[in-house]
Amino acid sequence: xxxxxxxxxxxxxxRFFRAFDSVDAAIKPSDPDHSRGELRRARVDIVxxxxxxxxxxxxxxxCKILDDHMAESLETLRLVPVMPDLxxxxxxxxxxxxxxxxxxERVRVLARGLVSGWRxxxxxxxxxxxxxxxxxxxxxxxxxxxxxxxxQQQHVSVDSGIVVKTVGISKKASPAGDRAGLCSEEKxxxxxxxxxxxxxxxEDAKRLRHSWCRRPR
Length: 217
Hints:
By secondary structure, the protein is mainly alpha-helical. Helix content is 65%, strand content 6%. Strands 1-4 form a two-stranded antiparallel ribbon. It has a two-stranded antiparallel sheet with strand order 2-3. Helix 2 (17-27) crosses helix 6 (92-98), helix 4 runs parallel beside helix 7 and helix 7 packs antiparallel against helix 8 (175-213). InterPro entries: TFIIS/LEDGF_dom_sf (IPR035441), TFIIS_N (IPR017923). Keywords: Nucleus.
């Protein structure tokens, strides 16, 4: 197998080969026919032919076939819902961002469109989280009421010199009051849980958005 020279078209694809794996992994869950495996084997055959290309014309034709493979994969990826956590936990976002500098115009345009769509989607998610947090912040938290109150009052009549002691009656809440108090506490705890969850989602969305914004367009 001939080693690629400095001017070999193989060098133009070398730094982008990993993008195929990232894109295939994102598409695979939505590929019931398992056609990604066949496409991967076809790409391996093309790469082997590319390494053994007899001249620049043959190598260029093979590189254009790889360009078409990537473009078709990006077209398929546009139809697959990509969750923000997938962009954080995998190299998909990084790989597609790199393809914006590919020599193939078709690949560049598709990659830029995908990145722009993901950014817009994340901005929408961040807006939804902020709206949800705003609603939670405006919830009037029910105040807990004492179920039983024991009071003892002592009244002293200075003018008459007579001390009148009044023992307060213990006020007990009715069973309905008990249930109302418990319901209020449960609602308050549920609201607190939603608020904490909302803050966590907001932090995740902001972290993801900042990581994308730092990447070159």
